[in-house]
Amino acid sequence: MVEQVSPALARRIALAAQGFGRPRPATVGVRQLNGLIDRINLLQIDSVNVFERSHYLPAFARLGAYDKTLLDRLTFDARGPHTEYWAHEAAFIRKEDWPLFEWRMRFNRGRYGAEGGWFDSNRETVEWLRRELAANGPLAASEIEHDANTRTGPWWGWSAVKRALEMLFLMGEVAIAGRTRFQRRYALVEDVLPASVLDVSFETEDAVRELIRRSAVAHGIGTAKDFADYYRIKGAPALAAIRDLEDAGELIPVRVPGWESAGKPIPAWLHRDARRPRRIEAAALLSPFDPVVWYRDRALRVFGFHYRIEIYTPAPQRVYGYYSLPILLDDALVGRIDLKSDRQAGVLRVQSAWTEDGDGGRIAERLLPLLAETAAWQGLGAVEVAPGARGDLAPLLVTAGVGG
Protein backbone atom coordinates (compact mmCIF):
# COMPACT_ATOMS: atom_id res chain seq x y z
CA MET A 1 0.00 0.00 0.00
CA VAL A 2 1.32 3.45 -0.94
CA GLU A 3 2.10 5.59 2.10
CA GLN A 4 0.06 8.77 2.50
CA VAL A 5 1.81 12.01 3.48
CA SER A 6 -0.30 14.94 4.63
CA PRO A 7 0.04 18.23 2.72
CA ALA A 8 1.34 19.93 5.88
CA LEU A 9 4.04 17.29 6.39
CA ALA A 10 4.93 17.48 2.69
CA ARG A 11 5.54 21.23 3.08
CA ARG A 12 7.77 20.65 6.08
CA ILE A 13 9.69 17.88 4.33
CA ALA A 14 10.23 20.13 1.30
CA LEU A 15 11.50 23.03 3.40
CA ALA A 16 13.73 20.84 5.57
CA ALA A 17 15.31 19.35 2.44
CA GLN A 18 16.13 22.90 1.36
CA GLY A 19 17.86 23.69 4.64
CA PHE A 20 15.09 25.52 6.48
CA GLY A 21 14.18 24.83 10.09
CA ARG A 22 17.74 24.36 11.28
CA PRO A 23 19.35 26.64 13.88
CA ARG A 24 21.27 29.43 12.21
CA PRO A 25 25.03 29.33 12.79
CA ALA A 26 26.49 31.94 15.11
CA THR A 27 28.92 32.91 12.35
CA VAL A 28 28.57 32.26 8.64
CA GLY A 29 31.89 31.42 7.02
CA VAL A 30 33.13 29.59 3.96
CA ARG A 31 32.35 26.20 5.50
CA GLN A 32 28.69 27.10 6.04
CA LEU A 33 28.35 28.57 2.54
CA ASN A 34 29.93 25.51 0.97
CA GLY A 35 27.62 23.32 3.02
CA LEU A 36 24.59 25.21 1.78
CA ILE A 37 25.61 24.89 -1.87
CA ASP A 38 26.25 21.19 -1.33
CA ARG A 39 22.71 20.87 0.08
CA ILE A 40 20.85 22.65 -2.71
CA ASN A 41 23.47 21.80 -5.39
CA LEU A 42 23.40 25.07 -7.34
CA LEU A 43 22.78 28.79 -7.13
CA GLN A 44 20.79 30.30 -9.97
CA ILE A 45 22.28 33.50 -11.39
CA ASP A 46 20.32 36.57 -12.38
CA SER A 47 21.65 40.05 -13.10
CA VAL A 48 18.78 42.11 -11.66
CA ASN A 49 20.19 44.21 -8.82
CA VAL A 50 17.37 46.51 -7.75
CA PHE A 51 17.43 44.86 -4.30
CA GLU A 52 20.14 42.19 -4.45
CA ARG A 53 21.40 39.77 -7.08
CA SER A 54 19.60 36.47 -6.82
CA HIS A 55 22.48 34.12 -6.05
CA TYR A 56 23.23 35.92 -2.78
CA LEU A 57 19.71 35.46 -1.42
CA PRO A 58 19.37 31.69 -0.78
CA ALA A 59 22.27 31.79 1.68
CA PHE A 60 20.81 34.81 3.49
CA ALA A 61 17.39 33.15 3.64
CA ARG A 62 18.79 29.99 5.24
CA LEU A 63 21.84 31.13 7.18
CA GLY A 64 21.22 34.78 7.99
CA ALA A 65 23.51 37.73 7.40
CA TYR A 66 26.93 36.92 5.97
CA ASP A 67 29.84 38.58 4.23
CA LYS A 68 29.06 38.45 0.52
CA THR A 69 32.76 38.62 -0.36
CA LEU A 70 33.05 35.08 1.05
CA LEU A 71 30.53 33.84 -1.48
CA ASP A 72 32.30 35.85 -4.19
CA ARG A 73 35.49 34.01 -3.29
CA LEU A 74 33.72 30.70 -3.88
CA THR A 75 31.91 31.67 -7.08
CA PHE A 76 33.65 34.64 -8.76
CA ASP A 77 37.27 33.63 -8.18
CA ALA A 78 38.63 31.38 -10.94
CA ARG A 79 40.62 29.53 -8.28
CA GLY A 80 37.49 28.76 -6.26
CA PRO A 81 35.62 25.46 -6.21
CA HIS A 82 32.76 26.61 -8.45
CA THR A 83 32.16 27.43 -12.07
CA GLU A 84 29.01 28.03 -14.11
CA TYR A 85 26.79 26.08 -16.41
CA TRP A 86 23.17 25.86 -17.52
CA ALA A 87 22.12 23.44 -14.79
CA HIS A 88 18.62 24.75 -14.02
CA GLU A 89 19.09 28.07 -15.75
CA ALA A 90 22.49 29.76 -15.61
CA ALA A 91 23.86 28.64 -12.26
CA PHE A 92 26.94 28.26 -10.13
CA ILE A 93 27.86 24.59 -9.76
CA ARG A 94 30.82 22.75 -8.29
CA LYS A 95 33.60 22.21 -10.80
CA GLU A 96 33.56 18.47 -10.21
CA ASP A 97 29.90 18.39 -11.34
CA TRP A 98 30.80 19.57 -14.86
CA PRO A 99 30.89 16.02 -16.32
CA LEU A 100 27.27 15.44 -15.22
CA PHE A 101 26.20 17.94 -17.88
CA GLU A 102 28.22 16.56 -20.79
CA TRP A 103 25.04 15.07 -22.24
CA ARG A 104 23.59 18.57 -22.42
CA MET A 105 26.80 19.87 -23.97
CA ARG A 106 26.62 17.13 -26.62
CA PHE A 107 23.05 18.15 -27.37
CA ASN A 108 24.08 21.78 -27.67
CA ARG A 109 26.92 20.89 -30.02
CA GLY A 110 24.37 19.26 -32.29
CA ARG A 111 21.98 22.17 -31.92
CA TYR A 112 24.37 25.09 -32.41
CA GLY A 113 27.10 23.44 -34.44
CA ALA A 114 24.82 22.15 -37.18
CA GLU A 115 25.91 22.66 -40.76
CA GLY A 116 24.49 25.85 -42.23
CA GLY A 117 23.68 27.40 -38.84
CA TRP A 118 25.04 30.63 -37.33
CA PHE A 119 28.04 28.91 -35.77
CA ASP A 120 28.97 27.23 -39.04
CA SER A 121 28.55 30.49 -40.93
CA ASN A 122 30.88 32.34 -38.56
CA ARG A 123 33.76 29.86 -38.45
CA GLU A 124 36.36 32.53 -39.06
CA THR A 125 35.27 34.49 -35.98
CA VAL A 126 35.05 31.30 -33.91
CA GLU A 127 38.52 30.08 -34.91
CA TRP A 128 40.00 33.51 -34.20
CA LEU A 129 38.26 33.50 -30.83
CA ARG A 130 39.70 30.09 -29.94
CA ARG A 131 43.20 31.35 -30.71
CA GLU A 132 42.61 34.52 -28.69
CA LEU A 133 41.47 32.56 -25.64
CA ALA A 134 44.37 30.12 -25.95
CA ALA A 135 46.85 32.99 -26.06
CA ASN A 136 45.30 35.50 -23.66
CA GLY A 137 42.40 33.94 -21.72
CA PRO A 138 40.57 34.22 -19.42
CA LEU A 139 38.89 37.26 -20.96
CA ALA A 140 35.61 39.12 -20.62
CA ALA A 141 33.74 39.64 -23.87
CA SER A 142 34.37 43.38 -23.56
CA GLU A 143 38.14 42.77 -23.51
CA ILE A 144 38.17 41.02 -26.87
CA GLU A 145 38.73 43.29 -29.84
CA HIS A 146 37.54 42.09 -33.22
CA ASP A 147 35.83 43.47 -36.29
CA ALA A 148 32.78 41.35 -35.40
CA ASN A 149 32.57 42.83 -31.91
CA THR A 150 29.57 45.03 -32.70
CA ARG A 151 26.12 44.56 -31.26
CA THR A 152 23.76 43.03 -33.79
CA GLY A 153 21.23 40.24 -34.07
CA PRO A 154 18.51 38.80 -31.86
CA TRP A 155 20.59 37.55 -28.90
CA TRP A 156 19.88 40.54 -26.63
CA GLY A 157 21.91 42.73 -29.00
CA TRP A 158 25.04 40.67 -28.40
CA SER A 159 28.04 41.07 -30.65
CA ALA A 160 29.17 38.13 -32.79
CA VAL A 161 32.05 37.61 -30.35
CA LYS A 162 29.72 37.46 -27.33
CA ARG A 163 27.35 35.15 -29.16
CA ALA A 164 30.19 32.82 -30.16
CA LEU A 165 31.50 32.78 -26.59
CA GLU A 166 28.09 31.82 -25.23
CA MET A 167 27.65 29.09 -27.83
CA LEU A 168 31.08 27.65 -27.04
CA PHE A 169 30.14 27.78 -23.36
CA LEU A 170 26.88 25.91 -23.97
CA MET A 171 28.79 23.36 -26.06
CA GLY A 172 31.32 22.77 -23.28
CA GLU A 173 34.37 23.99 -25.16
CA VAL A 174 34.62 27.20 -23.13
CA ALA A 175 34.09 27.49 -19.37
CA ILE A 176 33.63 30.46 -17.05
CA ALA A 177 36.78 31.42 -15.17
CA GLY A 178 35.10 33.58 -12.55
CA ARG A 179 33.61 37.04 -12.88
CA THR A 180 34.84 40.62 -12.57
CA ARG A 181 32.24 43.27 -11.70
CA PHE A 182 29.70 40.55 -12.49
CA GLN A 183 31.03 40.11 -16.05
CA ARG A 184 31.81 36.55 -17.04
CA ARG A 185 35.41 35.73 -17.86
CA TYR A 186 35.72 33.10 -20.58
CA ALA A 187 38.52 30.60 -21.07
CA LEU A 188 39.09 27.31 -22.83
CA VAL A 189 37.69 24.56 -20.65
CA GLU A 190 41.10 22.96 -20.05
CA ASP A 191 42.30 26.26 -18.57
CA VAL A 192 39.45 26.34 -16.04
CA LEU A 193 38.85 22.74 -14.98
CA PRO A 194 41.51 20.34 -13.71
CA ALA A 195 42.36 17.14 -15.55
CA SER A 196 40.80 15.18 -12.68
CA VAL A 197 37.43 16.65 -13.73
CA LEU A 198 37.92 16.57 -17.48
CA ASP A 199 38.99 12.92 -17.37
CA VAL A 200 35.62 11.91 -15.88
CA SER A 201 32.83 10.94 -18.22
CA PHE A 202 29.28 9.67 -17.72
CA GLU A 203 26.87 7.90 -19.99
CA THR A 204 23.76 10.02 -20.45
CA GLU A 205 21.56 7.58 -18.53
CA ASP A 206 23.95 7.50 -15.57
CA ALA A 207 24.31 11.29 -15.47
CA VAL A 208 20.55 11.83 -15.61
CA ARG A 209 20.00 9.28 -12.84
CA GLU A 210 22.53 11.03 -10.61
CA LEU A 211 20.98 14.44 -11.29
CA ILE A 212 17.50 13.13 -10.52
CA ARG A 213 18.86 11.57 -7.33
CA ARG A 214 20.31 14.93 -6.28
CA SER A 215 17.07 16.65 -7.19
CA ALA A 216 15.10 14.21 -5.06
CA VAL A 217 17.41 14.86 -2.09
CA ALA A 218 17.00 18.62 -2.56
CA HIS A 219 13.21 18.28 -2.78
CA GLY A 220 12.70 15.70 -0.05
CA ILE A 221 9.35 14.90 -1.60
CA GLY A 222 7.99 15.63 -5.06
CA THR A 223 6.50 14.57 -8.34
CA ALA A 224 8.31 13.48 -11.47
CA LYS A 225 7.92 16.99 -12.91
CA ASP A 226 9.32 18.50 -9.71
CA PHE A 227 12.41 16.32 -9.84
CA ALA A 228 12.86 16.86 -13.58
CA ASP A 229 12.57 20.65 -13.41
CA TYR A 230 15.47 21.07 -10.96
CA TYR A 231 17.92 20.32 -13.78
CA ARG A 232 15.50 20.89 -16.68
CA ILE A 233 15.47 17.21 -17.68
CA LYS A 234 12.83 15.95 -20.10
CA GLY A 235 9.98 13.86 -18.75
CA ALA A 236 10.76 10.42 -20.18
CA PRO A 237 14.42 10.15 -19.06
CA ALA A 238 13.51 11.70 -15.69
CA LEU A 239 10.78 9.11 -15.10
CA ALA A 240 13.12 6.29 -16.14
CA ALA A 241 15.67 7.52 -13.58
CA ILE A 242 12.97 7.76 -10.91
CA ARG A 243 11.94 4.15 -11.57
CA ASP A 244 15.58 3.04 -11.24
CA LEU A 245 15.91 4.89 -7.94
CA GLU A 246 12.62 3.45 -6.75
CA ASP A 247 13.81 -0.08 -7.60
CA ALA A 248 16.99 0.63 -5.63
CA GLY A 249 14.94 1.68 -2.61
CA GLU A 250 16.14 5.28 -2.64
CA LEU A 251 12.77 6.74 -3.63
CA ILE A 252 9.58 5.67 -1.87
CA PRO A 253 6.23 6.08 -3.67
CA VAL A 254 3.79 8.19 -1.63
CA ARG A 255 0.48 9.94 -2.06
CA VAL A 256 -0.21 13.50 -0.94
CA PRO A 257 -3.92 14.42 -0.70
CA GLY A 258 -4.63 17.46 -2.84
CA TRP A 259 -1.74 16.82 -5.22
CA GLU A 260 -4.03 16.15 -8.16
CA SER A 261 -4.36 16.81 -11.86
CA ALA A 262 -7.70 16.55 -13.65
CA GLY A 263 -9.14 15.05 -10.48
CA LYS A 264 -6.57 12.25 -10.31
CA PRO A 265 -3.74 11.89 -7.76
CA ILE A 266 -0.31 12.85 -9.07
CA PRO A 267 2.29 10.14 -8.33
CA ALA A 268 4.87 11.38 -5.85
CA TRP A 269 8.01 10.04 -4.22
CA LEU A 270 9.72 10.60 -0.89
CA HIS A 271 13.50 10.35 -0.61
CA ARG A 272 14.35 7.68 1.93
CA ASP A 273 16.67 10.01 3.86
CA ALA A 274 14.29 12.98 3.93
CA ARG A 275 13.72 14.55 7.34
CA ARG A 276 10.13 14.62 8.56
CA PRO A 277 10.11 17.54 11.01
CA ARG A 278 7.15 18.05 13.27
CA ARG A 279 7.48 21.80 12.84
CA ILE A 280 9.53 24.33 10.88
CA GLU A 281 10.58 27.62 12.41
CA ALA A 282 11.68 30.06 9.73
CA ALA A 283 11.42 33.68 8.70
CA ALA A 284 12.91 34.43 5.30
CA LEU A 285 12.61 36.43 2.12
CA LEU A 286 13.02 34.21 -0.92
CA SER A 287 14.58 35.14 -4.21
CA PRO A 288 12.23 34.75 -7.19
CA PHE A 289 14.83 32.17 -8.28
CA ASP A 290 15.06 30.26 -5.01
CA PRO A 291 14.57 26.50 -5.51
CA VAL A 292 11.59 26.59 -3.15
CA VAL A 293 9.58 28.64 -5.67
CA TRP A 294 11.38 28.53 -9.01
CA TYR A 295 9.06 25.80 -10.35
CA ARG A 296 5.84 27.75 -10.16
CA ASP A 297 3.56 24.69 -10.45
CA ARG A 298 5.20 23.19 -7.36
CA ALA A 299 4.91 26.46 -5.43
CA LEU A 300 1.18 26.44 -6.13
CA ARG A 301 0.70 22.74 -5.36
CA VAL A 302 2.81 22.59 -2.20
CA PHE A 303 2.26 26.06 -0.72
CA GLY A 304 -0.91 27.29 -2.42
CA PHE A 305 1.19 30.20 -3.67
CA HIS A 306 0.52 31.51 -7.18
CA TYR A 307 3.73 33.27 -8.15
CA ARG A 308 4.81 35.08 -11.29
CA ILE A 309 7.67 37.53 -11.46
CA GLU A 310 6.69 40.86 -13.04
CA ILE A 311 10.05 42.15 -14.26
CA TYR A 312 8.91 41.85 -17.87
CA THR A 313 5.41 43.17 -17.21
CA PRO A 314 4.86 46.86 -18.14
CA ALA A 315 4.77 48.94 -14.95
CA PRO A 316 1.07 49.95 -15.21
CA GLN A 317 0.09 46.28 -15.46
CA ARG A 318 2.11 45.03 -12.48
CA VAL A 319 0.09 43.75 -9.55
CA TYR A 320 2.72 42.93 -6.92
CA GLY A 321 5.81 44.82 -8.05
CA TYR A 322 8.93 44.63 -10.18
CA TYR A 323 10.87 42.17 -8.01
CA SER A 324 8.51 40.81 -5.37
CA LEU A 325 10.02 38.35 -2.90
CA PRO A 326 7.93 35.55 -1.40
CA ILE A 327 7.72 35.79 2.39
CA LEU A 328 8.30 32.51 4.21
CA LEU A 329 7.11 32.29 7.82
CA ASP A 330 7.52 28.85 9.37
CA ASP A 331 6.11 26.37 6.83
CA ALA A 332 3.95 28.80 4.83
CA LEU A 333 4.39 31.39 2.11
CA VAL A 334 2.32 34.15 3.66
CA GLY A 335 2.88 37.10 1.34
CA ARG A 336 5.24 38.94 -0.98
CA ILE A 337 7.24 42.13 -0.71
CA ASP A 338 8.88 44.31 -3.35
CA LEU A 339 12.15 45.79 -2.05
CA LYS A 340 14.64 48.30 -3.40
CA SER A 341 18.09 48.99 -1.96
CA ASP A 342 18.40 52.78 -2.21
CA ARG A 343 22.14 52.98 -1.58
CA GLN A 344 22.39 56.69 -2.19
CA ALA A 345 19.90 57.41 0.60
CA GLY A 346 21.04 54.47 2.77
CA VAL A 347 17.49 53.10 2.90
CA LEU A 348 15.82 49.76 2.19
CA ARG A 349 12.54 50.77 0.56
CA VAL A 350 9.37 48.69 0.69
CA GLN A 351 7.69 49.47 -2.62
CA SER A 352 4.76 47.12 -2.12
CA ALA A 353 3.81 44.41 0.35
CA TRP A 354 0.96 41.95 0.27
CA THR A 355 -0.41 39.15 2.41
CA GLU A 356 -1.87 35.96 1.00
CA ASP A 357 -4.72 34.99 3.33
CA GLY A 358 -3.08 35.31 6.71
CA ASP A 359 -3.04 37.58 9.72
CA GLY A 360 -1.47 40.76 8.36
CA GLY A 361 -0.73 42.20 11.79
CA ARG A 362 1.14 39.07 12.89
CA ILE A 363 3.03 38.96 9.59
CA ALA A 364 4.06 42.61 9.95
CA GLU A 365 5.34 42.02 13.48
CA ARG A 366 7.45 39.06 12.39
CA LEU A 367 8.72 40.92 9.34
CA LEU A 368 9.99 43.85 11.39
CA PRO A 369 13.21 42.23 12.68
CA LEU A 370 13.74 40.42 9.38
CA LEU A 371 13.60 43.68 7.41
CA ALA A 372 15.97 45.34 9.90
CA GLU A 373 18.40 42.42 9.51
CA THR A 374 18.04 42.62 5.72
CA ALA A 375 18.81 46.35 5.68
CA ALA A 376 21.87 45.87 7.88
CA TRP A 377 23.10 43.03 5.64
CA GLN A 378 22.76 45.39 2.69
CA GLY A 379 24.72 48.09 4.53
CA LEU A 380 21.65 50.31 4.77
CA GLY A 381 20.71 52.31 7.83
CA ALA A 382 16.93 52.26 7.76
CA VAL A 383 13.82 50.58 6.38
CA GLU A 384 11.08 52.77 4.93
CA VAL A 385 7.74 52.08 3.33
CA ALA A 386 7.69 54.16 0.16
CA PRO A 387 4.96 56.79 -0.18
CA GLY A 388 2.07 55.26 -2.06
CA ALA A 389 3.36 51.71 -1.54
CA ARG A 390 0.75 49.25 -2.71
CA GLY A 391 -0.61 46.20 -0.92
CA ASP A 392 -2.57 45.41 2.21
CA LEU A 393 0.63 44.66 4.18
CA ALA A 394 2.31 48.02 3.49
CA PRO A 395 0.26 50.13 5.96
CA LEU A 396 0.49 47.38 8.56
CA LEU A 397 4.29 47.56 8.36
CA VAL A 398 4.08 51.29 9.10
CA THR A 399 1.81 50.57 12.06
CA ALA A 400 4.27 47.92 13.30
CA GLY A 401 7.09 50.44 13.29
CA VAL A 402 8.63 50.59 9.81
CA GLY A 403 9.29 54.15 8.69
CA GLY A 404 6.97 55.57 6.12
UniProtKB/TrEMBL annotation:
Q: Which InterPro entries match?
A: AlkZ-like
Report what the protein is called.
Crosslink repair DNA glycosylase YcaQ family protein
Q: Which organism is it from?
A: Leifsonia sp. NPDC080035
